[in-house]
Amino acid sequence: MRFKKTITSSLLILTSLTFLSLSSSCNKNRENNDVINISLISPWMEDENKPEQIRKSFESKLQAIIGNKVKIKVSYSSDDYLVNLQNINKGVVDLAFVSHSSFENYISENQDKSNRIKPIIQTLTKSFKYDTDNFIYVDGTENDKIISNAKLQSELFNEKRYSEWDYPWNGSVYEYFYDDKLVDFQRGIIWISGTDEVRQKIIKAWNEKDWKTFRSFGIVHGSADSGSKYLLPEKLLKKHFNKNDNAFSSLASEITNHSNYFINGKTKDMLKNNHFHICFDNEGSYSWTQNTKDNINKYTPLNNEKMEILALTDPLQYNIGVVNINKVNSEIQNLIVSSLIQLYTSKQDDWGKTVGFYGYAKYK
């Protein structure tokens, strides 16, 4: 009788421990999925109080669509793509929006990152006027869309002096420069600036594929990990300047061997310096830069000079939303994607348009 009671007691203890262990495990798994931490890019606006209002609104509306499956927590944790990718990799953040080029560079470092970090959302943006199609470089002549459409964008930009722009400003952009069509790509551009004579010489060097002469007019570029200000222009130059005795190799090589012709900077560095007449930039950067006193020098050439867009680069996939698949399971991934799509189709997304995201699609 005592033996039977001992066995029964032991079984009860074992059952209780097993139940507690399973409960603890279930609670742990549930806790891991209870909160989805989303890192947003800070809105592009002057009003310092508005971003927090937008964050709260975005969080509240997304939560309402998702329901009680998970709790949504939204923050502006970082605007740095690399930091966001590192946070995703560590599991500090569950969803972040990064550039496609930064994602490709980051996962190329090792296979573990590639297996862990997954794109689930493709952001969409309004196309710029004269750039609604996904065209690419053909031959760089005047009939090539990267040249002809760049000319049309230049004419639009130069209709009025930048300091005199009175186009409606919606708090983030001048909508005058946009088309209503949504696209999933972005581009870089190549600006040229100077007197009529200087610009004609640059164009002549381009048309003749004379890299050495083209380079001699001085080039302002971005950091080596910038898609629009470095990687895309580099690919374009490599396609275009391909003469055997006068070919472009790479920006890294050119900057090392001919450093006097290159400077890491922005448009204002081209406009204030007569040694640099060519600049790599984001397409339409002026459209989200209000012509305030502090910004005038970014798009105002010296007297008797003019700036124009020589060429558009090939397209690059627009920003993507990425997750750590070890933390966010496929069910929650699909829920997040469908909820974001519903948020924008129901016109409730107050955040996206402040950073150039006008829609979302499932990443393919």
Describe the protein.
The chain has 364 residues and is an alpha/beta fold. It folds into 2 domains: 35-126 and 318-362, D-Maltodextrin-Binding Protein, domain 2 (3-Layer(aba) Sandwich); 135-314, D-Maltodextrin-Binding Protein, domain 2 (3-Layer(aba) Sandwich), CATH 3.40.190.190. Helices cover 40% and strands 19% of the residues. Strands 1, 2, 3, 4, 5, 13 and 14 form a 7-stranded mixed beta sheet that branches. Strands 9-8-10-7-11 form a 5-stranded mixed beta sheet. A two-stranded antiparallel ribbon has the order 6-12. Helix 2 crosses helix 12. It is globular. The model is unreliable at 1-32 (pLDDT under 50).
Strands, helices and their partners?
Blueprint: H1 2-34, E1 35-39, H2 50-66, E2 71-75, H3 81-90, E3 95-98, H4 100-107, H5 111-116, E4 117-128, H6 145-157, E5 178-183, E6 185-186, E7 188-194, H7 196-207, H8 211-215, E8 219-221, H9 227-240, H10 251-257, E9 262-264, H11 267-271, E10 278-282, E11 306-312, E12 316-317, E13 320-324, H12 330-345, E14 359-362
Parallel strand pairs: 1-2, 1-3, 8-9, 8-10
Antiparallel strand pairs: 3-13, 4-5, 4-13, 4-14, 6-12, 7-10, 7-11
Helix pairs in contact: 2-12
